[in-house]
Amino acid sequence: MKQTLLMALLGGLSLTALSAAPGPQPTNQPALQSQHHPVQIQVDAQAQKGPLTPIWAWFGYDEPNYTTMKDGKKLLSDIAALSPVPVYVRVHNLMNTGDGTAALKWGSTNMYTEDKDGKPIYNWTIVDQIFDAYVERGMKPIAQIGFMPEALSAKPQPYQHSWAPGKPYQEIMTGWAYPPKDYDKWADLISAWVSHSVERYGRAEVESWYWELWNEPDGFYLIAPDVQKEFFKMYDYAYFAVKRALPTARMGGPHTARGGEFFRNFIEHCLRGTNHVTGKVGTPLDFIAFHAKGAPALVNGRVQMGMNTHFKNISDGFAAVAEHPELKNIPIIIGESDPEGCAACGMKTNPENAYRNGTLYASYTAASIARKYDLAEEFGVNLLGAVNWSFEFEDQPWFEGYRDLATNGVNKPVLNVFKMLGMMRGNRLAVSGDLAYNAQSIRASGVRGAKTDINALAAADKSSISVMVWNYHDDDVINEGAPVELKITGVAASSVRLSHYRIDQEHSNSYSAWKQMGSPQQPSASQIAKLHAASELAQLSPAQTLAVKGGVVTVNMQLPRQGISLIQLTELKR
Protein backbone atom coordinates (compact mmCIF):
# COMPACT_ATOMS: atom_id res chain seq x y z
CA MET A 1 0.00 0.00 0.00
CA LYS A 2 2.85 2.41 0.87
CA GLN A 3 4.46 1.68 -2.49
CA THR A 4 1.17 2.38 -4.29
CA LEU A 5 0.73 5.74 -2.59
CA LEU A 6 4.36 6.66 -3.21
CA MET A 7 3.97 6.03 -6.96
CA ALA A 8 0.82 8.13 -6.98
CA LEU A 9 2.76 11.01 -5.48
CA LEU A 10 5.41 10.58 -8.17
CA GLY A 11 2.84 11.34 -10.85
CA GLY A 12 1.12 8.09 -11.72
CA LEU A 13 -0.52 5.07 -10.15
CA SER A 14 0.78 1.54 -10.56
CA LEU A 15 -1.78 -0.82 -9.11
CA THR A 16 0.01 -4.14 -9.36
CA ALA A 17 -1.55 -5.00 -6.02
CA LEU A 18 -4.96 -5.10 -7.66
CA SER A 19 -4.01 -8.15 -9.70
CA ALA A 20 -2.60 -10.15 -6.82
CA ALA A 21 -5.72 -12.30 -6.47
CA PRO A 22 -5.23 -15.73 -8.05
CA GLY A 23 -6.59 -16.15 -11.56
CA PRO A 24 -7.80 -19.22 -13.46
CA GLN A 25 -5.30 -21.98 -13.97
CA PRO A 26 -3.94 -22.19 -17.52
CA THR A 27 -5.48 -24.71 -19.88
CA ASN A 28 -3.44 -26.68 -22.38
CA GLN A 29 -3.69 -23.62 -24.62
CA PRO A 30 -0.84 -21.09 -24.38
CA ALA A 31 -1.58 -17.53 -23.43
CA LEU A 32 -2.10 -15.57 -26.64
CA GLN A 33 -0.53 -12.29 -25.52
CA SER A 34 3.05 -11.99 -24.36
CA GLN A 35 3.31 -12.13 -20.59
CA HIS A 36 6.34 -9.79 -20.70
CA HIS A 37 4.87 -6.83 -22.59
CA PRO A 38 1.58 -5.48 -21.23
CA VAL A 39 -1.20 -4.56 -23.60
CA GLN A 40 -1.29 -0.78 -23.59
CA ILE A 41 -4.70 0.95 -23.34
CA GLN A 42 -4.97 4.73 -23.17
CA VAL A 43 -8.09 6.67 -22.21
CA ASP A 44 -8.20 10.44 -22.60
CA ALA A 45 -10.64 11.85 -20.07
CA GLN A 46 -10.73 15.13 -22.01
CA ALA A 47 -11.58 13.56 -25.41
CA GLN A 48 -15.34 13.09 -25.29
CA LYS A 49 -17.05 11.35 -28.21
CA GLY A 50 -20.71 11.92 -27.41
CA PRO A 51 -23.29 10.55 -24.97
CA LEU A 52 -23.00 7.04 -23.59
CA THR A 53 -26.56 6.24 -24.69
CA PRO A 54 -27.79 3.33 -22.53
CA ILE A 55 -28.35 1.05 -25.52
CA TRP A 56 -27.82 -1.93 -23.20
CA ALA A 57 -30.80 -1.13 -20.91
CA TRP A 58 -33.18 -3.11 -23.12
CA PHE A 59 -34.23 -6.73 -22.48
CA GLY A 60 -36.66 -9.21 -23.98
CA TYR A 61 -38.01 -12.75 -23.85
CA ASP A 62 -40.56 -15.08 -25.44
CA GLU A 63 -42.52 -16.18 -22.39
CA PRO A 64 -44.57 -13.27 -20.94
CA ASN A 65 -46.11 -15.33 -18.16
CA TYR A 66 -42.70 -15.79 -16.50
CA THR A 67 -42.95 -12.06 -15.72
CA THR A 68 -45.32 -12.55 -12.80
CA MET A 69 -43.78 -15.74 -11.41
CA LYS A 70 -41.47 -15.88 -8.40
CA ASP A 71 -38.08 -15.84 -10.12
CA GLY A 72 -39.35 -13.58 -12.88
CA LYS A 73 -40.33 -10.87 -10.40
CA LYS A 74 -36.96 -11.10 -8.65
CA LEU A 75 -35.03 -10.82 -11.89
CA LEU A 76 -37.12 -7.87 -13.05
CA SER A 77 -36.28 -6.09 -9.81
CA ASP A 78 -32.58 -6.86 -10.26
CA ILE A 79 -32.62 -5.59 -13.85
CA ALA A 80 -34.50 -2.42 -12.92
CA ALA A 81 -32.08 -1.72 -10.05
CA LEU A 82 -28.93 -1.91 -12.19
CA SER A 83 -29.89 0.92 -14.52
CA PRO A 84 -29.91 4.67 -13.83
CA VAL A 85 -32.52 5.06 -16.59
CA PRO A 86 -35.78 3.21 -17.23
CA VAL A 87 -35.21 -0.25 -18.65
CA TYR A 88 -37.29 -1.18 -21.71
CA VAL A 89 -38.76 -4.68 -21.94
CA ARG A 90 -39.93 -6.40 -25.12
CA VAL A 91 -41.99 -9.61 -24.87
CA HIS A 92 -43.68 -11.94 -27.36
CA ASN A 93 -47.08 -13.65 -27.18
CA LEU A 94 -48.93 -10.84 -25.38
CA MET A 95 -52.13 -11.23 -27.42
CA ASN A 96 -52.29 -15.02 -27.58
CA THR A 97 -55.36 -16.91 -26.50
CA GLY A 98 -54.98 -19.14 -23.44
CA ASP A 99 -55.14 -19.32 -19.66
CA GLY A 100 -51.74 -17.77 -18.96
CA THR A 101 -49.90 -21.03 -18.31
CA ALA A 102 -46.21 -20.58 -19.13
CA ALA A 103 -44.36 -22.84 -21.56
CA LEU A 104 -41.17 -22.60 -23.59
CA LYS A 105 -41.54 -20.14 -26.48
CA TRP A 106 -45.18 -19.62 -25.56
CA GLY A 107 -47.39 -17.32 -23.55
CA SER A 108 -50.98 -16.13 -23.41
CA THR A 109 -53.17 -13.44 -21.88
CA ASN A 110 -56.60 -14.31 -23.31
CA MET A 111 -56.92 -10.68 -24.29
CA TYR A 112 -59.51 -11.39 -26.98
CA THR A 113 -62.31 -13.91 -27.38
CA GLU A 114 -65.77 -13.75 -28.97
CA ASP A 115 -69.23 -14.74 -27.78
CA LYS A 116 -71.47 -17.13 -29.68
CA ASP A 117 -72.59 -14.31 -31.94
CA GLY A 118 -69.05 -13.25 -32.83
CA LYS A 119 -69.10 -10.16 -30.60
CA PRO A 120 -65.66 -9.25 -29.21
CA ILE A 121 -64.88 -9.83 -25.54
CA TYR A 122 -61.84 -7.97 -24.20
CA ASN A 123 -60.07 -9.24 -21.08
CA TRP A 124 -57.09 -7.25 -19.80
CA THR A 125 -56.49 -9.13 -16.54
CA ILE A 126 -53.32 -11.03 -17.43
CA VAL A 127 -51.71 -8.40 -19.64
CA ASP A 128 -52.33 -5.83 -16.88
CA GLN A 129 -50.52 -8.06 -14.38
CA ILE A 130 -47.55 -8.25 -16.75
CA PHE A 131 -47.39 -4.53 -17.46
CA ASP A 132 -48.03 -3.70 -13.80
CA ALA A 133 -44.85 -5.63 -12.97
CA TYR A 134 -42.90 -3.39 -15.34
CA VAL A 135 -44.45 -0.06 -14.41
CA GLU A 136 -44.17 -0.71 -10.67
CA ARG A 137 -40.41 -1.08 -11.15
CA GLY A 138 -40.06 2.01 -13.34
CA MET A 139 -39.61 -0.12 -16.47
CA LYS A 140 -41.15 0.64 -19.86
CA PRO A 141 -42.87 -1.85 -22.17
CA ILE A 142 -42.09 -2.20 -25.82
CA ALA A 143 -45.68 -3.25 -26.34
CA GLN A 144 -45.76 -5.91 -29.02
CA ILE A 145 -48.93 -6.27 -31.09
CA GLY A 146 -48.70 -10.01 -31.39
CA PHE A 147 -49.58 -12.62 -31.84
CA MET A 148 -52.99 -13.44 -33.34
CA PRO A 149 -55.86 -14.31 -30.97
CA GLU A 150 -57.47 -17.61 -31.84
CA ALA A 151 -60.84 -16.06 -32.69
CA LEU A 152 -59.20 -13.68 -35.18
CA SER A 153 -56.71 -16.06 -36.79
CA ALA A 154 -57.13 -16.76 -40.49
CA LYS A 155 -56.30 -20.41 -39.70
CA PRO A 156 -56.79 -20.99 -35.98
CA GLN A 157 -56.35 -24.75 -35.70
CA PRO A 158 -54.14 -26.13 -34.31
CA TYR A 159 -53.55 -23.08 -32.16
CA GLN A 160 -51.05 -23.64 -29.33
CA HIS A 161 -47.81 -25.46 -30.17
CA SER A 162 -46.06 -28.00 -27.94
CA TRP A 163 -42.47 -27.31 -28.97
CA ALA A 164 -39.61 -28.51 -26.78
CA PRO A 165 -35.83 -28.24 -27.15
CA GLY A 166 -34.57 -30.68 -29.75
CA LYS A 167 -37.75 -30.57 -31.82
CA PRO A 168 -37.75 -28.85 -35.23
CA TYR A 169 -38.13 -25.12 -34.78
CA GLN A 170 -40.86 -25.02 -37.42
CA GLU A 171 -43.21 -26.85 -35.03
CA ILE A 172 -43.97 -23.59 -33.26
CA MET A 173 -45.80 -22.34 -36.34
CA THR A 174 -49.45 -22.90 -35.48
CA GLY A 175 -52.64 -20.82 -35.50
CA TRP A 176 -51.18 -17.86 -33.58
CA ALA A 177 -48.83 -17.11 -36.51
CA TYR A 178 -51.52 -16.23 -39.11
CA PRO A 179 -52.79 -12.77 -40.07
CA PRO A 180 -56.26 -11.62 -39.01
CA LYS A 181 -59.31 -12.89 -40.81
CA ASP A 182 -61.08 -9.63 -39.95
CA TYR A 183 -58.86 -6.55 -40.10
CA ASP A 184 -61.49 -4.24 -38.65
CA LYS A 185 -61.99 -6.34 -35.51
CA TRP A 186 -58.24 -6.69 -35.14
CA ALA A 187 -57.71 -2.92 -35.43
CA ASP A 188 -60.48 -2.32 -32.90
CA LEU A 189 -58.73 -4.69 -30.48
CA ILE A 190 -55.46 -2.78 -30.84
CA SER A 191 -57.17 0.56 -30.26
CA ALA A 192 -59.01 -0.83 -27.25
CA TRP A 193 -55.72 -2.10 -25.73
CA VAL A 194 -54.02 1.28 -26.18
CA SER A 195 -57.04 3.13 -24.76
CA HIS A 196 -57.17 0.79 -21.79
CA SER A 197 -53.46 1.33 -21.15
CA VAL A 198 -53.94 5.10 -21.12
CA GLU A 199 -56.83 4.75 -18.70
CA ARG A 200 -54.86 2.44 -16.38
CA TYR A 201 -51.38 3.99 -16.46
CA GLY A 202 -51.97 7.57 -17.62
CA ARG A 203 -51.34 9.31 -20.90
CA ALA A 204 -47.82 10.48 -20.07
CA GLU A 205 -46.72 7.00 -19.07
CA VAL A 206 -48.03 5.33 -22.23
CA GLU A 207 -46.50 8.08 -24.36
CA SER A 208 -43.12 6.92 -23.04
CA TRP A 209 -43.63 3.36 -24.34
CA TYR A 210 -42.97 1.97 -27.80
CA TRP A 211 -45.63 0.09 -29.75
CA GLU A 212 -44.61 -2.40 -32.41
CA LEU A 213 -46.11 -4.99 -34.71
CA TRP A 214 -45.26 -8.68 -34.60
CA ASN A 215 -41.84 -10.30 -34.65
CA GLU A 216 -39.59 -11.47 -37.47
CA PRO A 217 -42.21 -11.60 -40.22
CA ASP A 218 -39.43 -12.52 -42.64
CA GLY A 219 -38.59 -15.57 -40.54
CA PHE A 220 -40.89 -18.08 -38.88
CA TYR A 221 -43.47 -15.82 -37.32
CA LEU A 222 -46.00 -15.06 -40.03
CA ILE A 223 -47.79 -17.48 -42.37
CA ALA A 224 -49.50 -16.07 -45.45
CA PRO A 225 -49.48 -16.69 -49.23
CA ASP A 226 -47.61 -13.40 -49.67
CA VAL A 227 -45.97 -12.72 -46.31
CA GLN A 228 -44.44 -9.41 -47.31
CA LYS A 229 -47.64 -7.91 -48.71
CA GLU A 230 -49.67 -9.18 -45.75
CA PHE A 231 -47.29 -7.76 -43.20
CA PHE A 232 -47.24 -4.34 -44.85
CA LYS A 233 -51.03 -4.32 -44.70
CA MET A 234 -50.94 -5.38 -41.05
CA TYR A 235 -48.54 -2.57 -40.22
CA ASP A 236 -50.72 0.04 -41.89
CA TYR A 237 -53.78 -1.10 -39.93
CA ALA A 238 -51.87 -1.42 -36.65
CA TYR A 239 -50.30 2.01 -37.01
CA PHE A 240 -53.62 3.79 -37.43
CA ALA A 241 -55.25 1.67 -34.72
CA VAL A 242 -52.61 2.75 -32.20
CA LYS A 243 -52.75 6.41 -33.28
CA ARG A 244 -56.53 6.43 -33.22
CA ALA A 245 -56.40 5.69 -29.49
CA LEU A 246 -53.32 7.82 -28.70
CA PRO A 247 -52.09 10.14 -31.46
CA THR A 248 -48.84 10.80 -29.56
CA ALA A 249 -47.97 7.11 -29.16
CA ARG A 250 -44.70 5.88 -30.70
CA MET A 251 -45.21 3.15 -33.28
CA GLY A 252 -42.67 1.35 -35.47
CA GLY A 253 -41.22 -1.88 -36.82
CA PRO A 254 -40.71 -4.21 -38.63
CA HIS A 255 -38.50 -6.31 -36.28
CA THR A 256 -37.27 -8.43 -39.15
CA ALA A 257 -34.93 -11.32 -38.37
CA ARG A 258 -32.15 -9.37 -40.06
CA GLY A 259 -31.67 -6.56 -42.54
CA GLY A 260 -31.94 -7.65 -46.14
CA GLU A 261 -34.55 -7.38 -48.87
CA PHE A 262 -37.65 -7.64 -46.66
CA PHE A 263 -36.36 -4.91 -44.36
CA ARG A 264 -35.51 -2.62 -47.27
CA ASN A 265 -38.87 -3.24 -48.93
CA PHE A 266 -40.65 -2.39 -45.68
CA ILE A 267 -38.80 0.91 -45.51
CA GLU A 268 -39.73 1.59 -49.13
CA HIS A 269 -43.38 0.80 -48.39
CA CYS A 270 -43.45 3.19 -45.44
CA LEU A 271 -41.80 5.96 -47.42
CA ARG A 272 -43.38 5.59 -50.85
CA GLY A 273 -45.83 2.69 -50.92
CA THR A 274 -49.62 2.80 -51.07
CA ASN A 275 -51.15 2.75 -47.61
CA HIS A 276 -53.71 -0.05 -47.22
CA VAL A 277 -55.91 2.04 -44.91
CA THR A 278 -55.86 5.51 -46.48
CA GLY A 279 -54.92 4.74 -50.07
CA LYS A 280 -52.40 7.56 -49.84
CA VAL A 281 -48.62 7.41 -50.09
CA GLY A 282 -46.67 5.99 -47.19
CA THR A 283 -47.09 5.07 -43.54
CA PRO A 284 -45.19 6.93 -40.82
CA LEU A 285 -42.47 5.33 -38.70
CA ASP A 286 -41.64 6.69 -35.24
CA PHE A 287 -38.75 4.25 -34.92
CA ILE A 288 -37.33 1.41 -36.95
CA ALA A 289 -36.26 -2.02 -35.75
CA PHE A 290 -34.46 -5.12 -36.95
CA HIS A 291 -32.66 -8.08 -35.34
CA ALA A 292 -29.05 -9.23 -35.43
CA LYS A 293 -27.60 -12.54 -34.26
CA GLY A 294 -24.25 -14.24 -34.11
CA ALA A 295 -23.48 -17.82 -35.11
CA PRO A 296 -21.63 -20.03 -32.59
CA ALA A 297 -20.44 -23.46 -33.68
CA LEU A 298 -18.58 -26.46 -32.36
CA VAL A 299 -15.08 -26.58 -33.81
CA ASN A 300 -12.98 -29.58 -32.80
CA GLY A 301 -15.28 -30.12 -29.83
CA ARG A 302 -14.99 -26.55 -28.56
CA VAL A 303 -17.45 -23.67 -28.81
CA GLN A 304 -16.41 -20.96 -31.23
CA MET A 305 -18.51 -17.81 -31.23
CA GLY A 306 -19.54 -15.95 -34.38
CA MET A 307 -19.38 -12.26 -33.50
CA ASN A 308 -18.51 -11.45 -37.13
CA THR A 309 -21.95 -12.67 -38.26
CA HIS A 310 -23.57 -10.62 -35.51
CA PHE A 311 -21.77 -7.46 -36.64
CA LYS A 312 -22.51 -8.10 -40.32
CA ASN A 313 -26.23 -8.29 -39.51
CA ILE A 314 -26.06 -5.06 -37.53
CA SER A 315 -24.17 -3.32 -40.32
CA ASP A 316 -26.65 -4.49 -42.95
CA GLY A 317 -29.53 -3.01 -40.96
CA PHE A 318 -27.70 0.25 -40.33
CA ALA A 319 -26.77 0.51 -44.00
CA ALA A 320 -30.40 0.04 -45.10
CA VAL A 321 -31.50 2.92 -42.87
CA ALA A 322 -28.58 5.14 -43.86
CA GLU A 323 -29.51 4.76 -47.54
CA HIS A 324 -32.57 6.97 -46.98
CA PRO A 325 -32.04 10.67 -46.18
CA GLU A 326 -35.67 10.79 -45.05
CA LEU A 327 -34.71 8.55 -42.11
CA LYS A 328 -31.86 10.72 -40.89
CA ASN A 329 -31.82 10.55 -37.07
CA ILE A 330 -34.77 8.15 -36.84
CA PRO A 331 -34.35 6.08 -33.64
CA ILE A 332 -33.16 2.53 -34.32
CA ILE A 333 -33.87 -0.37 -31.98
CA ILE A 334 -32.01 -3.62 -32.56
CA GLY A 335 -34.97 -5.60 -31.27
CA GLU A 336 -32.92 -8.72 -30.56
CA SER A 337 -29.13 -8.59 -30.46
CA ASP A 338 -27.57 -11.84 -29.29
CA PRO A 339 -24.84 -14.43 -29.89
CA GLU A 340 -27.42 -16.69 -31.62
CA GLY A 341 -31.11 -17.06 -32.23
CA CYS A 342 -32.89 -19.44 -29.82
CA ALA A 343 -32.87 -18.63 -26.11
CA ALA A 344 -34.86 -21.77 -25.24
CA CYS A 345 -32.49 -24.13 -27.10
CA GLY A 346 -30.35 -25.44 -24.24
CA MET A 347 -26.81 -26.72 -24.48
CA LYS A 348 -27.87 -30.38 -24.21
CA THR A 349 -29.77 -30.27 -27.49
CA ASN A 350 -27.57 -27.54 -28.97
CA PRO A 351 -24.01 -28.04 -27.66
CA GLU A 352 -22.80 -24.94 -29.51
CA ASN A 353 -24.77 -22.99 -26.89
CA ALA A 354 -22.58 -24.16 -24.01
CA TYR A 355 -21.14 -20.64 -23.73
CA ARG A 356 -24.17 -19.37 -21.81
CA ASN A 357 -23.46 -20.18 -18.16
CA GLY A 358 -19.99 -18.77 -17.75
CA THR A 359 -17.66 -15.94 -18.64
CA LEU A 360 -17.63 -16.44 -22.42
CA TYR A 361 -21.18 -15.03 -22.56
CA ALA A 362 -20.11 -12.19 -20.27
CA SER A 363 -17.01 -11.20 -22.24
CA TYR A 364 -18.91 -11.52 -25.56
CA THR A 365 -21.59 -9.20 -24.19
CA ALA A 366 -19.07 -6.58 -23.05
CA ALA A 367 -17.10 -6.65 -26.32
CA SER A 368 -20.17 -6.59 -28.57
CA ILE A 369 -22.15 -3.86 -26.79
CA ALA A 370 -19.14 -1.56 -26.84
CA ARG A 371 -18.71 -2.04 -30.61
CA LYS A 372 -22.35 -1.22 -31.37
CA TYR A 373 -21.55 2.42 -30.59
CA ASP A 374 -18.73 2.28 -33.13
CA LEU A 375 -20.89 0.64 -35.82
CA ALA A 376 -23.62 3.25 -35.35
CA GLU A 377 -20.99 5.96 -35.64
CA GLU A 378 -19.63 4.38 -38.82
CA PHE A 379 -23.01 4.53 -40.56
CA GLY A 380 -24.13 7.81 -39.02
CA VAL A 381 -27.33 6.39 -37.54
CA ASN A 382 -29.18 7.02 -34.29
CA LEU A 383 -28.98 3.80 -32.24
CA LEU A 384 -31.46 4.03 -29.38
CA GLY A 385 -31.35 0.52 -27.94
CA ALA A 386 -30.14 -3.04 -28.46
CA VAL A 387 -32.37 -5.65 -26.83
CA ASN A 388 -30.60 -8.47 -25.03
CA TRP A 389 -33.02 -11.36 -25.65
CA SER A 390 -32.43 -13.11 -22.36
CA PHE A 391 -34.50 -13.38 -19.19
CA GLU A 392 -35.14 -16.53 -17.13
CA PHE A 393 -36.81 -19.93 -17.45
CA GLU A 394 -38.90 -20.82 -14.44
CA ASP A 395 -38.57 -24.21 -12.73
CA GLN A 396 -35.83 -25.57 -14.98
CA PRO A 397 -32.70 -27.50 -13.93
CA TRP A 398 -29.84 -25.45 -12.51
CA PHE A 399 -27.53 -24.01 -15.17
CA GLU A 400 -29.30 -25.94 -17.91
CA GLY A 401 -27.67 -23.79 -20.55
CA TYR A 402 -30.57 -21.66 -21.69
CA ARG A 403 -29.76 -18.14 -22.79
CA ASP A 404 -30.88 -16.49 -19.57
CA LEU A 405 -29.68 -13.97 -17.02
CA ALA A 406 -30.47 -16.12 -13.99
CA THR A 407 -31.14 -19.73 -13.06
CA ASN A 408 -33.60 -20.58 -10.28
CA GLY A 409 -33.35 -17.03 -9.00
CA VAL A 410 -29.52 -16.92 -8.94
CA ASN A 411 -28.00 -14.41 -11.33
CA LYS A 412 -25.42 -15.57 -13.86
CA PRO A 413 -22.08 -13.86 -14.58
CA VAL A 414 -23.45 -12.10 -17.66
CA LEU A 415 -25.82 -9.98 -15.59
CA ASN A 416 -22.81 -8.39 -13.91
CA VAL A 417 -21.75 -6.93 -17.26
CA PHE A 418 -25.01 -4.98 -17.26
CA LYS A 419 -24.34 -3.92 -13.66
CA MET A 420 -20.98 -2.56 -14.80
CA LEU A 421 -22.59 -0.70 -17.68
CA GLY A 422 -25.19 0.71 -15.31
CA MET A 423 -22.39 2.23 -13.23
CA MET A 424 -20.95 4.13 -16.20
CA ARG A 425 -22.11 7.72 -16.69
CA GLY A 426 -21.79 10.67 -19.02
CA ASN A 427 -20.04 10.82 -22.39
CA ARG A 428 -17.93 8.19 -24.12
CA LEU A 429 -14.21 8.80 -24.09
CA ALA A 430 -11.59 8.11 -26.73
CA VAL A 431 -9.74 4.80 -26.26
CA SER A 432 -6.45 4.00 -28.00
CA GLY A 433 -3.39 1.80 -27.63
CA ASP A 434 -1.93 -1.33 -29.17
CA LEU A 435 -5.38 -2.82 -29.74
CA ALA A 436 -5.62 -5.87 -31.97
CA TYR A 437 -9.27 -5.52 -33.01
CA ASN A 438 -11.95 -2.95 -33.72
CA ALA A 439 -15.56 -3.28 -34.85
CA GLN A 440 -14.61 -3.38 -38.52
CA SER A 441 -11.94 -6.07 -38.16
CA ILE A 442 -14.27 -8.23 -36.08
CA ARG A 443 -17.01 -7.80 -38.68
CA ALA A 444 -14.59 -8.97 -41.36
CA SER A 445 -13.22 -12.08 -39.69
CA GLY A 446 -14.21 -12.33 -36.05
CA VAL A 447 -11.80 -12.68 -33.14
CA ARG A 448 -9.98 -15.72 -34.46
CA GLY A 449 -6.34 -14.65 -34.55
CA ALA A 450 -3.35 -15.29 -32.34
CA LYS A 451 -4.30 -12.36 -30.11
CA THR A 452 -7.34 -11.94 -27.95
CA ASP A 453 -9.52 -8.85 -28.09
CA ILE A 454 -8.35 -6.71 -25.18
CA ASN A 455 -10.04 -3.34 -25.40
CA ALA A 456 -12.13 -0.90 -23.40
CA LEU A 457 -15.25 1.25 -23.25
CA ALA A 458 -14.79 4.46 -21.26
CA ALA A 459 -17.08 7.24 -20.09
CA ALA A 460 -16.97 10.25 -17.82
CA ASP A 461 -19.22 12.85 -16.24
CA LYS A 462 -18.44 15.61 -13.76
CA SER A 463 -18.05 13.22 -10.83
CA SER A 464 -16.71 9.95 -12.27
CA ILE A 465 -14.55 8.26 -14.87
CA SER A 466 -15.33 4.64 -15.71
CA VAL A 467 -13.42 2.22 -17.92
CA MET A 468 -14.66 -1.28 -18.70
CA VAL A 469 -11.86 -3.53 -20.00
CA TRP A 470 -12.39 -7.03 -21.40
CA ASN A 471 -10.33 -9.94 -22.69
CA TYR A 472 -12.39 -11.77 -25.32
CA HIS A 473 -11.80 -14.39 -28.00
CA ASP A 474 -14.30 -16.33 -30.11
CA ASP A 475 -12.76 -19.63 -28.97
CA ASP A 476 -13.92 -20.91 -25.58
CA VAL A 477 -10.52 -21.10 -23.88
CA ILE A 478 -9.75 -19.84 -20.40
CA ASN A 479 -6.20 -19.10 -19.31
CA GLU A 480 -4.23 -16.59 -17.29
CA GLY A 481 -4.69 -13.98 -20.01
CA ALA A 482 -2.36 -11.04 -20.33
CA PRO A 483 -0.95 -8.10 -18.39
CA VAL A 484 -2.71 -4.83 -19.21
CA GLU A 485 -1.54 -1.30 -18.53
CA LEU A 486 -4.46 1.12 -18.49
CA LYS A 487 -3.41 4.76 -18.57
CA ILE A 488 -6.10 7.39 -17.96
CA THR A 489 -4.92 10.88 -18.86
CA GLY A 490 -6.57 14.26 -18.46
CA VAL A 491 -7.84 13.48 -14.96
CA ALA A 492 -8.73 16.95 -13.69
CA ALA A 493 -8.45 16.14 -10.00
CA SER A 494 -5.89 16.15 -7.24
CA SER A 495 -7.22 12.93 -5.74
CA VAL A 496 -9.66 10.18 -6.69
CA ARG A 497 -11.39 7.21 -5.16
CA LEU A 498 -10.47 4.15 -7.21
CA SER A 499 -12.61 1.00 -7.30
CA HIS A 500 -11.83 -2.11 -9.35
CA TYR A 501 -14.63 -4.58 -10.10
CA ARG A 502 -13.99 -7.91 -11.81
CA ILE A 503 -15.83 -10.76 -13.53
CA ASP A 504 -13.72 -13.89 -13.99
CA GLN A 505 -13.56 -17.46 -12.72
CA GLU A 506 -13.29 -16.40 -9.08
CA HIS A 507 -15.22 -13.14 -8.99
CA SER A 508 -18.86 -12.31 -9.70
CA ASN A 509 -19.43 -15.88 -10.89
CA SER A 510 -22.20 -18.08 -9.52
CA TYR A 511 -21.50 -20.75 -12.15
CA SER A 512 -17.96 -21.35 -10.92
CA ALA A 513 -19.26 -21.49 -7.35
CA TRP A 514 -21.92 -24.03 -8.36
CA LYS A 515 -19.36 -26.24 -10.08
CA GLN A 516 -17.10 -26.08 -7.03
CA MET A 517 -20.04 -27.39 -4.98
CA GLY A 518 -20.24 -30.42 -7.28
CA SER A 519 -22.98 -29.03 -9.55
CA PRO A 520 -25.90 -29.92 -7.25
CA GLN A 521 -29.35 -30.05 -8.81
CA GLN A 522 -30.94 -29.85 -5.36
CA PRO A 523 -28.71 -27.38 -3.53
CA SER A 524 -29.33 -26.81 0.15
CA ALA A 525 -30.49 -23.50 1.56
CA SER A 526 -26.95 -22.68 2.64
CA GLN A 527 -25.59 -23.56 -0.81
CA ILE A 528 -28.19 -21.32 -2.46
CA ALA A 529 -27.19 -18.49 -0.14
CA LYS A 530 -23.55 -18.98 -1.18
CA LEU A 531 -24.58 -18.96 -4.85
CA HIS A 532 -26.42 -15.67 -4.37
CA ALA A 533 -23.35 -14.21 -2.69
CA ALA A 534 -21.09 -15.44 -5.49
CA SER A 535 -23.42 -13.91 -8.09
CA GLU A 536 -22.92 -10.34 -6.84
CA LEU A 537 -20.57 -7.97 -8.64
CA ALA A 538 -17.31 -8.21 -6.69
CA GLN A 539 -14.37 -5.88 -6.20
CA LEU A 540 -10.94 -7.25 -7.01
CA SER A 541 -9.48 -5.36 -4.06
CA PRO A 542 -10.66 -2.73 -1.57
CA ALA A 543 -11.28 0.76 -2.92
CA GLN A 544 -8.51 3.31 -2.36
CA THR A 545 -8.26 7.09 -2.23
CA LEU A 546 -5.29 8.17 -4.33
CA ALA A 547 -3.39 11.33 -5.05
CA VAL A 548 -3.14 12.27 -8.73
CA LYS A 549 -0.22 14.17 -10.23
CA GLY A 550 0.06 15.33 -13.80
CA GLY A 551 -3.52 14.31 -14.51
CA VAL A 552 -2.53 10.66 -14.99
CA VAL A 553 -3.80 7.49 -13.35
CA THR A 554 -2.19 4.21 -14.42
CA VAL A 555 -3.68 0.84 -13.52
CA ASN A 556 -1.72 -2.35 -14.07
CA MET A 557 -3.64 -5.60 -13.99
CA GLN A 558 -3.48 -9.20 -15.07
CA LEU A 559 -6.69 -9.74 -17.05
CA PRO A 560 -7.62 -13.40 -17.51
CA ARG A 561 -9.06 -14.54 -20.79
CA GLN A 562 -12.86 -14.03 -20.67
CA GLY A 563 -12.34 -11.60 -17.80
CA ILE A 564 -13.91 -8.15 -17.52
CA SER A 565 -12.76 -5.32 -15.26
CA LEU A 566 -14.47 -2.05 -14.42
CA ILE A 567 -12.11 0.66 -13.22
CA GLN A 568 -14.03 3.51 -11.66
CA LEU A 569 -12.64 6.83 -10.46
CA THR A 570 -15.05 8.75 -8.24
CA GLU A 571 -14.91 11.62 -5.73
CA LEU A 572 -12.84 13.64 -8.17
CA LYS A 573 -11.51 16.30 -5.82
CA ARG A 574 -10.04 19.35 -7.48
UniProtKB/TrEMBL annotation:
Entry-linked SUPFAM superfamilies: (Trans)glycosidases (SSF51445), Glycosyl hydrolase domain (SSF51011)
Superkingdom classification of source: Bacteria
Matching Pfam families: Glyco_hydro_39
InterPro entries cross-referenced by the UniProt entry: GH, GH39_cat, Glyco_hydro_39, Glycosyl_Hydrolase_39
Domain Glycosyl hydrolases family 39 N-terminal catalytic: residue ranges: 40-536
Family in the record: Belongs to the glycosyl hydrolase 39 family.
Protein's recorded name: Glycosyl hydrolases family 39 N-terminal catalytic domain-containing protein
Organism listed in the record: Cellvibrio fontiphilus
Lineage, broadest ranks: Bacteria, Pseudomonadati, Pseudomonadota, Gammaproteobacteria, Cellvibrionales
